[in-house]
Design brief:
The protein is of the alpha+beta class and 249 residues long. It has 6 helices and 6 strands. Bound molecules: heme C (HEC). Heme C binds next to strand 1, strand 2, strand 3, strand 4 and strand 5.
Length: 249
């Protein structure tokens, strides 16, 4: 079932609107709307639409046309309401967004820029993690200009992996630099990824930041997300962000 927005768009375009009326910056949305438009105009002709754009179809304003038009509008409204009810139900049942904040995994975050790397160990040696903080373009601009608070649109990702090592790598290092006991480690299996997304109007109650934690693409529960902001409070003099920009070697 197409979400209602596409149905509405397709209907309006069919009646004489243009795709550029709908978020011209979002190419994906446009092409999706185009696809839906084609499908809906083939399988579901809606005579009622002529009533919204009479100048395009003056001949349809006959008596029969008007009756069909009313029926068509009713059908469209019913079908649209069904879509809305259904999609609302679905999003509650299997949401991909973090609780409290409603942040989803930002597209392309794996290609963001490196802010810094970290290591986290503990639990008597059972916990060994390597971590990378990445930022989108807005985050990098703010970091490089030393700008605080971070501007709206800033997104920071924290990628966490289990720390792993390779005997083969270490053997090469031992052969090349004998006697130094060199050991190299690397990012092994993925643990989770966390995001902080700046929107000073939307997230007033949490310092302007929306928080999100995902494991295997699924958001953590509400209890987990209640811990984020309180624990980031100590960094309030740096807009609740702990990570500093690592110097360029
Ligand atoms: C126990 C305190 C604590 C909790 C709880 C916590 N954080 Fe953090 N967070 C930190 C610290 C300290 C750092 C910097 C050190 C590090 O990354 O290991 C950090 C770093 C981050 C970063 C990288 C940017 C920065 O501030 O350095 C993100 C993104 C992040 N946390 C998101 C989250 C999210 C999302 C949650 C909730 C699911 C969360 N954090 C919960 C303490 C916490």
């Amino acid at each position: 079932m197409p979400p209602p927005s596409y149905t509405v768009m397709a209907a309006a375009i069919e009646g004489g609107g243009s795709l550029s009326d709908f978020e011209p910056a979002k190419g994906k949305l446009q092409s999706e709307a185009m696809r839906r438009f084609k499908v809906s105009s083939i399988v579901r002709p809606r005579p009622g639409m002529t009533r919204f754009f009479p100048s395009r179809h003056p001949s349809a304003l006959q008596t029969t046309g008007q009756v069909l038009g009313v029926l068509g509008v009713c059908t469209t409204i019913t079908v649209c309401s069904l879509y809305v009810t259904k999609s609302k139900g679905q999003s509650r049942a299997e949401s991909n967004a973090s609780p409290i904040y409603g942040v989803t995994i930002p597209a392309g975050y794996r290609d963001w820029h490196l802010i810094s790397v970290k290591r986290l160990t503990g639990a008597e040696g059972k916990l060994k993690q390597l971590r990378a903080e990445l930022g989108n373009d807005i985050a990098m601009m703010a970091y490089r200009e030393g700008r605080l608070p971070f501007p709206d649109g800033t997104m920071i990702a924290a990628l966490h992996w289990n720390e792993d090592s390779s005997d083969a790598d270490n053997q090469v290092l031992a052969d090349g630099f004998p006697g130094l006991g060199l050991e190299s480690t690397f990012a092994g299996s993925a643990v989770n990824v966390q995001f902080m997304v700046k929107d000073s109007k939307k997230y007033v109650a949490s310092g302007g930041w929306g928080f999100a934690d995902f494991t295997n693409g699924k958001p953590g529960n509400e209890k987990l997300h209640q811990t984020c902001f309180p624990c980031h409070r100590p960094a309030n003099d740096r807009d609740f962000v702990f990570t500093r920009y690592a110097p360029t070697p």
